[in-house]
Fold this protein.
Amino acid sequence: MSLPPTWTPAEARAAGLSRGRLRGPSFVRLAHGLTARLDDAIDATDRLRLLSRLLPEDAAFSHATAAALLGAPMAPPRQAHIALTPRRVLPQRAEFVTHARRLHAEDVVLHHDLRVTSGAQTYLDLAETLPPAELVAVGDALLRAGHLDGVSLARRLARAARVRGVVRARKCASLLSPLSMSRPESLVRYWLTVSNLPTPVPQLPVLDRWGREVAHADLGYAEWKVALEYEGRQHADADQFRRDIDRYSLMAADGWLVLRFAGRHLTGPSIVLDRTRRALLSRGWRDPRG
């Protein structure tokens, strides 16, 4: 008798598998009463797909689990978060963190064959616990990946009057942009936008004296020719390093001042704000505070 990819003890006994054989290296116990056959390694998405067999039909992966599945800059949590329709007693299992949610049809999507809360619902759920800068980074990533748009987000927030975190979600919604290419870019853009400094333009084209685009900046101010760049690990690649040298030389030749930041500068906003302010002042910007 053949078995599905996951099975219960009763199904295993019916197929003639002994307890001793189930303890062998070819099988893995995903949860109490649920065993899976390992052909190769199981990645995070495959494991969720297998664990979803434990869930009732109305369940959807949510919160940080949904965010990670949808491509937001969050590591999948050890315990998968799920949303269930409220009932007198919510089922509890050690493998899951359970949330009661009255979800509309548009609040759930099918992603990699998994029921997952939509981008708008995931953004709203995370607004309860994430600080604003990190919430903006999540929202930017969901926009960039096509899992969120302004219309669906506005519609979801409009019916979230008493939902925890909705005030923060609404404040941050107007700051989201699909042009931020990474979490660090989103953090820097958020810090600058809510400061007294001018609001930077993401993915700003850098033009030479003839008006030709020679580069673009992660963030920048065309009026003062100040550009901000985040240097991630990919910039250590030899080819990327050569391209960076060429790009920064072209920008400098046309009068641009480039501020380069790395991970160690992003533990808080103070360094980014101070250096950007000094750069803008050096280029003629006037602080309205005097």
Summary: Residues 57-173 form one domain.
